[in-house]
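Need residues for this backbone.
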């Protein structure tokens, strides 16, 4: 039985840093060269901060791509942005896809628009307030409401690729020990996991009543250690292809991405 879905608090506070006000004396002509140098230093500092917070590679923040589910930070939109890159990385392994995570209907709708892709979704929470499109997907059996803390209702290797977004951020290690092996069990060719970035913790504050607990955004080091503990190996070939395709398309993820091999 899926968790109850109650209204959440859509409030989100975004803090922005600002420069200290300049003294009126900067307009003095006699001292303009020194203040020009100071201005260049400050400009350089802002550019450096922008580089650091923008990030490089798999874990950079692309502010224009940050998704929102009822006003909160989400990796669901990130999955949709990454579909063309995933197709390049996984090729034929994208023909039978299972997406697991909140707002899976939007992901499945996008996947079904792609040529030669069959897609199914698992929504971990009740969808009583879902729109007509989502209810239609549920009626057709393409989307199921399932509590992922328990075994998934699919046979082993039912899907060529399993994509997970957001759902794992709301599970404690106790339940991750059960859920992660299940996700790997139903995958034949690979498992792609999108998780939040720890520095987004204040942005990803959802009502505890909806998910059972607040999101726990963990570092890549924590996840890698946990994957090793679960005997899950990195899919190095997929990582390389994904990075190459991402570079060509100037794609910079807003979430952490992990490409894992399924269990043999």
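Answer:
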């Amino acid at each position: 039985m899926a968790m109850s879905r109650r209204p959440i608090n859509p409030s989100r506070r975004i803090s922005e840093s600002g420069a200290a006000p300049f003294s009126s004396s900067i307009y003095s002509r006699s001292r303009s060269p020194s203040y020009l140098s100071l201005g260049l230093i400050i400009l350089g500092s802002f550019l450096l901060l922008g580089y650091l917070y923008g990030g490089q590679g798999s874990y950079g923040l692309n502010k224009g791509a940050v998704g929102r589910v009822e006003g909160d930070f989400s990796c669901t939109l990130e999955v949709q942005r990454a579909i063309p890159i995933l197709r390049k990385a996984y090729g034929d392994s994208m023909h039978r896809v299972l997406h697991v995570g909140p707002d899976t209907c939007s992901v499945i709708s996008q996947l079904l628009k792609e040529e030669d892709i069959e897609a199914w979704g698992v929504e971990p929470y009740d969808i009583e307030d879902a729109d007509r499109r989502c209810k239609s997907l549920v009626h057709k059996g393409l989307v199921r409401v399932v509590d992922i803390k328990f075994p998934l209702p699919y046979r082993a290797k039912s899907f060529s690729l399993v994509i997970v977004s957001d759902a794992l951020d709301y599970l404690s290690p106790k339940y991750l020990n059960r859920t992660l092996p299940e996700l790997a069990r139903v995958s034949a060719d690979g498992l792609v996991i999108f998780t939040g970035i720890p520095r987004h913790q204040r942005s990803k504050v959802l009502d505890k009543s909806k998910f059972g607990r607040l999101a726990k955004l963990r570092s890549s080091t924590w996840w890698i250690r946990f994957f090793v503990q679960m005997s899950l190996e990195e899919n190095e070939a997929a990582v390389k292809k994904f990075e190459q395709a991402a570079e060509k398309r100037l794609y910079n993820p807003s979430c952490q991405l992990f490409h894992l091999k399924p269990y043999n």
